[in-house]
Amino acid sequence: MTRPSVVRALTSxxxxxxxxxxxxxxxxLATLVPQGxxxxxxxxxxxxxxxxxxxxxxxxxxxxGYTSWIFLVPLAVLAVxxxxxSWQRTRTAVRRFRAVRDATPSGLGKRARSWEVVRVDGASAxxxxxxxxxxxxxxxxxxLREGNLVSGTxxxxxxxxxxxxxxxxLALILLVAASQLTQASGLMGVPVGDAxxxxxxxxxxxxVGPLHAWSTSPRSVAVPDFDLTWVVGELDRGxxxxxxxxxxxxxxxxxxxxxxxxxxxVGSITVHSNDYGLAARIVxxxxxxxxxxxxxxxxxxxxxxxxxxxxxxxxxTGAGGAVAYETTVTVKAARSGGELHRLPKxxxxxxxxxxxxxxxxxxxxxxxxxxxxxxxxxxxxxxxxRLTYYARLSVVDxxxxxxxxxxxxxxxxxxxxxxxxGPRVALVESAQAGEGAEAxxxxxxxxxxxxxxxxxxxxxxxxxxxxxxxxxxx
Amino acid sequence: xxxxxxxMWLAVSLYAASAALFVVGLVWRSQLLMRxxxxxxxxxxxxxxxxxxxxxxxxxxxxYLGFYEVVSSYAFASVVALAIIAWRKPSxxxxxxxxxxxxxxxxxxxxxxxxxDLAITPTLASWWLxxxxxxxxxxxxxFFAAFAVALAYLARDRWPNRLPEWLHEKLPGQADLDELSxxxxxxxxxxxxxxxxxGAIWAxxxxxxxxxxxxxxxxxxxxxxxxxxxxxxxxxxxxxxxKSAWFAVAALPxxxxxxxxxxxxxxSIHGAYLTGY
Lengths: 474, 277
Known about the structure:
The structure holds two protein chains of two kinds. Chain A is α+β, with helices and mostly antiparallel strands. Chain A has helices at residues 3-10, 13-32, 41-49, 51-60, 69-101, 105-111, 125-138, 161-182, 401-420, 450-464; strands at 114-120, 142-146, 149-154, 184-191, 195-197, 205-208, 220-227, 231-232, 235-236, 240-246, 252-257, 264-266, 269-285, 291-295, 298-299, 309-318, 321-331, 335-336, 339-340, 348-355, 364-369, 373-375, 381-397, 424-433, 436-443, 467-473. Chain A folds into four domains: 3-88; 103-155 and 423-473, Kinase associated domain 1, KA1 (TATA-Binding Protein), CATH 3.30.310; 183-276 and 394-410, no CATH class; 279-390, no CATH class. Chain A is 33% helix and 36% strand. In chain A, strands 4, 6, 12, 13, 14, 15, 22 and 23 form an eight-stranded antiparallel sheet that branches. A six-stranded antiparallel sheet of chain A has the order 2-3-24-25-1-26, sandwiched between helices. In chain A, strand 12 and strand 13 form a beta hairpin. Chain B folds into two domains: 1-120; 121-277, no CATH class. Chain B contains ten helices and no strands. Chain B is flat and about 55 Å long. At the A-B interface, helix 2, strand 9, strand 13, helix 9 and helix 10 of A face helix 7 and helix 8 of B.
């Protein structure tokens, strides 16, 4: 294929139609099968239940339908096609804008091909031109007259609606792709009264783009306060943390109550509240009272973990060297419908300690009240130091969101102009014909608004008691 | 509750009567019956509007939570669309032959569903929800109007001798119908785009992500692509007339399925708005 023919193929409307239908088809098929990694339980169980289809679905990547090659390749082609079309549309829009701006009746007369003809008996061409002038003005067109040739033009700027929309669409595709490559998002559990740096080790689950750059002196997310009920506008917004974004020097960059529809935004960081649970602080001290270490396991209470149990590794470095423990921590708490609804009045921490890697080592099982300690084998003590709520926060570092909104707004504006306010050019040529006069009505073929041309012809016919007789080509 | 239900059943009855009158009017080729059918439909709007208002005040939100509220409000929107079309183009009032049986089925189906009050949750408490829903209804209205006008076009195109004489005379020209259908789809496409954008922004405010390929999000995009194809065929490939009209008719099920069918057919976080939570 030669270069122009490739461009012609890529800018073909038929290709765009085909790609849109293809993408819609793949999206539809992807809604019919579970979405997830090949090893996820839903995907595996669906494959087991549908062995005949599983192979095809796997080959096509339909279980990750929106990131599969059958979706992304056509999307990329559509992006290239949109770019080329946008360029072509921009050039066309400039031409049309100039055509509308510089239009003269005689200039338009040379371009006109397909006419609607109105015959008016017993009238002069000048009278019919007068009526045409009024009809074009009534249609809110800018009217110019050269003898019996009357032109009407409007909204030259409307020619830019379509290119603005298509450029915005292209920019949106590219922006979303760039955002996926550069953003970091995940869930971070922050106990009330604590702060965590916005860094990989702070996240429980994390999705990070390959081009994301972590700060060497990261900002922190702090949760100074938490309420199980937070009423705004007479509506309880549910469990609500007070979240603070803090600069490395301790300066507070932003603060706010975070609940649904009220995220905290500071620069590229957006914080949503996802869930909450309990955080039990465990402190280990040596025989001499020196702090050897501490940990704050996060305990969730929901249908999948109703007992508030979690397992945390605990490494204690004492006089006898480092000892690593597999620690199971349980706090029983008052729950309502699987959810925690208040802090336990008399919290008890059940601790099971097993030295890591030592299958036959003795297992320590004990229950501690708040403030109580357990003496370990080497003489150090493990203390149940504090129990509080923790807020599970969705912390997203994504610079693209305001740009995305801006592009959506610009795209909508372009779409609205393109569909509702395209440029209009009309010409009415009046001439004597037999006993009367004839008005020939023409509009630019850009949008093919035949009804607009018919309407103009009808309004001239109504005002002159004339008749719309025919459409003619010249 | 009782007043609301009585008013709703009154609306059901009037819509049923209107649907029957439209069909009989078409069969008997009676303009008078068609006119009566239209006014009966408009009369049905009054009790339904009052019922919606009464419920709105009681539950403190618009008709957008649960099958009963959502589906009956689409019936209301359909009849409003018919009234607007008939007001602007009286010769098109006969599209009630298609609209009113559908409106009757929608409101009748809604009346058979649970009518419990669903309260606004913190996630739903957003202005974006109002914008999202308002433009969902407007897009449905526009596409439905385009569908009705396209049907009118096709009916005259395919059975020019079977339509009553008065209908032929009263109907706008085929070029007008063709362009009217296109304009409704153009406006509907803008409304659909605003609905999707408002929904994405709302999802980001409420859940922290603007797009997650949830079935209803995906289906709204599929519908957007279908109508984008319509606009491309029309504006770039130059489709006009019957081809364009068939497309407008065939595209309507996509928006109907997106707005009403998807929450019933798929497990979706969005489904709660129709199936309750």
